[in-house]
Design goal:
heterodimer; A: about 140 residues; alpha/beta; Transcription Regulator spoIIAA; five-stranded mixed β-sheet; 5 helices; globular; B: about 300 residues; Globin-like; 2 domains; 11 helices; 5 strands; about 10% strand
């Protein structure tokens, strides 16, 4: 069965979607990704969709779903390299994916992820005392 | 557009030897003979009639130009009516005439003539031909009536053609203006490394939103920008649909991974927006482009000595 590879990159997972994916493949990706997040304890997920030219409402909802699920599993999701056409389509479909972080390219995506993780650590540090021991004050 | 003098037209015409027009001369109609015989007279009468009716426009087109136009039309008309006087201006014989009338009407439309003024150019020919016909058939009232009838029908048809061409000309003008407006209205400006601005002018309907959005998103990819500033100083009114379109653009920009700032909200517009209950959500808004630019610089982490000292 065809699968989309998920690569471990430090504390994060990196997914590049380079084929036109159908609904079944998308569901498989979602399952795989969740399992890998739990297995590796990943803190962030980068999804590169710069080769995707076609999206439908299902795909839009899937990205939003992945973002919400990952957040429950304590991982931040950044969608990278969305094409203008895709962005316009999603907006016209009424899917502006409010919970999903986006970035223009991989470099920016990783910077954004770092920033998000640092910010979260800091907020935990303020609320609870556990984080203080683990991490240097940011 | 130099035309041969009126007398040269005789060379083309069938042999009409006598000074008085040859009535019922075979296949040639009286109108055709008159057009070649009394070309100068018809032309003069036509131009005079036009001058009289279009006094307000005098000086806009030189008389020489008008004469040249009329001469060309008469030439074509003479060829057309030479065969038979079927008054169907859509037929092949009239192709030349129609073409000239079309060109003339479109020209007038572009120069800002009113439809009436354009039609007068053609309808004045009626006066001119009427005079000539009356003179030629003074002693044959029956022939005069039938000739006037067919001439009337012919000129009326040409007049209608004028209207149609005039409208087509106007339409062309409108379409080309629309296109140039669309092209003019959506420039995306790069302000800094990572910052683009989009000054919007005019109204923001859904069609323009589409163009604006496309241009902006492509510019963001091309310049690898992190921040886009949409300046709406030039937007006349902001109602719920305009706000909706703005929000769509902002959402699309965010999907691309860039932040969006809306600037240039005039006090009046701010009041209208609140009055209408327009919500811009969590979009960053600034009163002026300068304010938005300062925020954008901070967002991209630009380090400016002057900007720093001001804060």
């Amino acid at each position: 069965m065809e699968r989309i590879p998920i690569v471990t990159l430090g504390e994060s997972l990196f997914v590049t979607i380079q084929v036109d994916i159908d609904d079944r493949l998308a569901t498989t990706l979602q399952d795989d990704l969740m399992e890998r997040i739990v297995a590796t304890g990943a803190r962030g997920v980068l999804i590169d969709i710069s080769s995707m030219e076609v999206v439908d409402s299902f795909m839009g909802r899937m990205f939003a779903g992945i973002a919400s699920m990952s957040r429950i599993l304590d991982a931040e999701v950044v969608v990278i390299g969305m094409r203008p056409v895709v962005a316009i389509t999603l907006v016209e479909l009424g899917l502006s994916m409010p919970g999903v972080r986006t970035a223009l390219n991989v470099e920016r995506g990783m910077a954004l992820l770092d920033q998000a993780l640092t910010a979260r650590l800091n907020s935990v540090g303020v609320d609870g005392e556990l984080a203080d021991g683990d991490d240097a004050p940011g | 557009m130099a035309r041969p003098p009126a007398s040269a037209g005789k060379g083309l015409a069938a042999p009409v030897t006598s000074a008085t027009p040859q009535l019922n001369g075979g296949s040639r109609s009286l109108l055709a003979s008159l057009l070649s015989e009394r070309r100068k007279q018809v032309l003069d009468a036509w131009v005079r009639a036009m001058d009289r009716k279009l006094e307000s426009r005098s000086g806009q087109t030189s008389e020489a130009d008008v004469r040249a136009e009329c001469t060309a039309l008469l030439d074509a008309l003479e060829l057309a009516v030479a065969g038979d006087l079927s008054t169907d201006v859509k037929s092949v014989e009239y192709a030349g005439v129609t073409q000239l009338v079309n060109a003339l009407s479109k020209d007038r439309a572009r120069q800002g003539y009113s439809p009436t003024e354009t039609a007068i150019a053609v309808f004045s020919l009626k006066d001119a031909l009427l005079g000539v016909l009356e003179e030629a058939c003074a002693d044959q009232p029956e022939l005069l009536v039938s000739e006037i009838k067919s001439m009337n029908a012919l000129v009326d048809d040409l007049g209608l053609q004028t209207f149609e061409a005039y409208m087509a000309g106007r339409e062309e003008v409108i379409v080309s203006q629309q296109q140039s407006m669309l092209a003019l209205s959506t420039p995306v400006v790069k302000l800094w490394d990572g910052i683009v601005a989009l000054p919007l002018i005019g109204t923001l309907d859904s069609e323009r939103t589409q163009t604006v959005m496309e241009n902006l998103l492509v510019a963001i990819v091309d310049t690898e920008s992190q921040v886009a500033i949409i300046d709406i100083t030039g937007v006349v009114t902001v109602d719920t649909s305009v706000a909706q379109n703005l929000l769509k653009t902002v959402a699309a920009t965010r999907l691309m991974g860039a932040d969006c700032i809306i600037s240039g909200i005039r006090p009046q517009i701010a009041q209208t927006m609140v009055f209408l209950g327009v919500e811009l959500g969590d979009v960053v808004t600034k009163a002026t482009l300068a304010d938005a630019f300062r925020v954008a610089l901070r967002m991209v982490g630009a380090n400016l000595a002057t900007a720093g000292s001001r804060q």
